[in-house]
Amino acid sequence: xxxxxxxxxxxxxxxxxxxxxxxxxxxxxxxxxxxxxxxxxxxxxxxxxxxxxxxxxxxxxxxxxxxxxxxxxxxxxxxxxxxxxxxxxxxxxxxxxxxxxxxxxxxxxxxxxxxxxxxxxxxxxxxxxxxxxxxxxxxxxxxxxxxxxxxxxxxxxxxxxxxxxxxxxxxxxxxxxxxxxxxxxxxxxxxxxxxxxxxxxxxxxxxxxxx
Length: 211
Description:
Blueprint: E1 7-13, H1 18-33, E2 36-42, H2 45-49, H3 58-81, H4 86-99, H5 106-115, H6 132-143, E3 154-158, E4 164-168, H7 178-192
Parallel strand pairs: 1-2
Antiparallel strand pairs: 1-3, 3-4
Helix pairs in contact: 1-7, 3-4, 4-5
């Protein structure tokens, strides 16, 4: 399979979301077992929840204040160094936030930037609105494909008719590997490609399992 024959899978993430993190690790497995190439994009839970922030529980309102920093850093990195840096930066941030349980503060962000080979001063973007226009545009590009009633991640792939097939999720834990990753990918595309198909869901009984 040549590089040009790979199917692009556009993936919108917020590094704060543990469920998006699980899905992203699954997508890295999908790249190994299917001719798929993930293209990373930033979306923002803070932007998504702005219109209803006052209606959210106080704990979640506080979390949304924290959510601005990491996505601002990601979008600043993309604007200054290109979209190819997002995958490594997301991995460096997500590993620290979720697997290692580190604080979502400047020290953690700087360490992630350094691991991704990026300048530490990009961490300054966490407290700046300098790239918020670009952040909102990236968020809108993803959320417009699926509607406002979902969160992160959003995945979009080309359909057989040239139109994008886009969906939220899948929400899964732990991240499937090998043949299980391939089967989930095939099944997800199958149901998502059906016109008029909108939802399949069951109550979550466990939290994210990081490994």
